[in-house]
Amino acid sequence: MKTYMAKPEEIERQWFVIDANGLVLGRVASRIASILRGKTKPIYTPNVDCGDYVIVINTDKMVLTGKKLEQKFYRYHTGYVGGLKSIQFKTMMNEKSDKVLQNAVKGMLPKNSLGRNMGKKLKVFKGAEHNMQAQQPIELKF
Fold first, then answer.
1. How many beta carbons lie within 10 A of that of residue 6, not counting itself?
2. Could you tell me the residue ranges of all domains in the chain?
3. Cβ distance 38 to 44 under 8 Å?
4. Which residue stretches of the chain are H helix?
5. What would the CATH number be for the domain defined by 14-63+96-140?
6. Angle subtended at Cα 39 by Cα 30 and Cα 122, rounded to the nearest 5 degrees
7. Average pLDDT along the chain
8. pLDDT over 70, % of the chain
9. Which of 57, 71, 53 is nearest to 23 (CA)?
10. Span 44-58, pLDDT tens digits
C-alpha cells in the first residue's frame, strides 16, 4: 500500500466562521489550530500547508476557567536592560481580545515558516461583524 502525499496545488481550501461567544479560550484555540494545519482533512500531510481559512468573531466574549482572569499575565521583553513588561489578562481581554486568541493559536502551530503561513489564514474580529462575506464561509458549531 502506498502512502498518499498531498501536493500544494491539489489542496482545496474552504472558509469557516466560528462564533466564540461564551466558549473557552484554550478549547477554541486548539480546534482552530487543527483546522489551520489541515488535520481535519483526510489528505493531511505534515510537511504541506493543507489547512483551511478560519474567521473568528465575538472574541471579546470568550471565557477562561478558574481564576485565570486575575492570575494570568502576558509577559514580553522590550530588548533593553530591565525591560520585562507584564500585562494582566483581564486588561488584555478588555483592550485586545483578538490578539489574545491569535497568541493562543500561534503557540499551537509549528515554529517555522510553515507555521507562519498557517497563521496568516486566521482572521479574528472583536465584534459580531466581519468583512469576509464574499468568501461565503461555512459556520462551525462547537
1. 17
2. 14-63+96-140
3. yes
4. 25-37, 68-71, 89-106, 113-119
5. 3.90.1180.10
6. 55
7. 94
8. 100
9. 57
10. 999 999 999 999 999
